[in-house]
Every structure is written in C-alpha cells, then in structure tokens.
Amino acid sequence: MELYISNEWNNDDKSYVSSNMFAFNLKHFPDDLKGRYQEVNLFLKNADGQIFGGLLSEICWNWMQIEYLFVADEIRKSGYGKQLLDEAEKIAKAKNCNFIKLDTLSFQALDFYKKQGFEVFGSIPNAGGYTHYYLKKDL
C-alpha cells in the first residue's frame, strides 16, 4: 500500500483522527475516568445577545483544558475575565476535575492568570518572538 500526505481535509477526516486518538487513549485510562469528555463554553453577552467575549474549554478525564479566553477591549479590566474563570472553575470542581490547564503568550495574560492562582509549569522561548507559557491550577 502506498500512502501520501495531504493537507486537504474535511470534517470526516478530522473526526477520524480525533476519535481514533480518543479510543487509543481510552485503553490507558482507568475505568472511572472513561467517557469523561465534555465541552464547556461560556459567553459574555448583553441583554440584546451581543457577544463581548467568552471562554472555550473541554473537560477531559480528570482535568479541564481552557483553549481560549477572550474579553473585548472595551470591557477589559472590568472583572469579566475573572468571572469567566471563576465560573469555569466551579464547573470543573462539580465535574470532579483535579486541575485546570491553559497556555498563554508573554504579550497576553500571564500576570492575570497568576493572580487567579495558576502556576507556570513550562515555557518555550522564541515562540514568534515571545515566550509561550503553560499554566496549571490544582483544584
């Protein structure tokens, strides 16, 4: 069989890779953690439904992974980022997560995350001229 690498894709291709990786991982996790996957997405909206930010994450086995946290410029430093993190943490605790993890670049929100109790567990220098930080908060 001859194979080739392609960067053309569709949702079925993505699903094949992710579902097979998930199935492989399931073989290695304890039974009580199997099937523990859930998207957790929170949004900042006004009364008219206009969006001003949000947090996109997933619970996987015994942790929550925050993929994105964004707050619009005009409402930054108003406490909404902290509120989003607090709500995500409540959900993670209710779902018996042991920790939350996320990453940020040095021009983004490192100090903000540290103030919320996150600790740096790794970094990569020169990520586009910045430092890429990996953070974790035990629950």
Describe the structure in your own words.
The protein is α+β, with helices and mostly antiparallel strands and 139 residues long. It is 27% helix and 38% strand. The chain contains 3 helices and 6 strands; from the N terminus they run αβββαβαββ. The chain has helices spanning 11-26, 80-94, 110-115; strands spanning 37-45, 51-60, 63-71, 99-105, 119-127, 130-138. It has a 6-stranded mixed β-sheet with strand order 1-2-3-4-6-5. A hairpin with a 2-residue loop joins β2 (51-60) and β3. The longest helix is centred in the N-terminal third of the chain and has 16 residues, at 11-26. It is globular and about 60 Å long. The protein starts with 10 loop residues before the first helix and ends with a strand.
- Which strand-content bin applies to the residues? 35-45%
Mean pLDDT metric: 92
Helix amount: 25-40%
Spatial arrangement of strands, main beta sheet: 1-2-3-4-6-5
Largest sheet: 6 strands, mixed
The overall strand count is: 6
Number of helices: 3
Q: Give the SSE order as H and E letters.
A: HEEEHEHEE
Radius of gyration, in angstroms, nearest whole number: 18 Å
Secondary structure class reads alpha+beta
Shape: globular
Low-pLDDT stretches are none
Report the span from N to C terminus: 49 Å
What does the secondary structure layout of this molecule look like, with pairings?
Blueprint: H1 11-26, E1 37-45, E2 51-60, E3 63-71, H2 80-94, E4 99-105, H3 110-115, E5 119-127, E6 130-138
Parallel strand pairs: 3-4
Antiparallel strand pairs: 1-2, 2-3, 4-6, 5-6
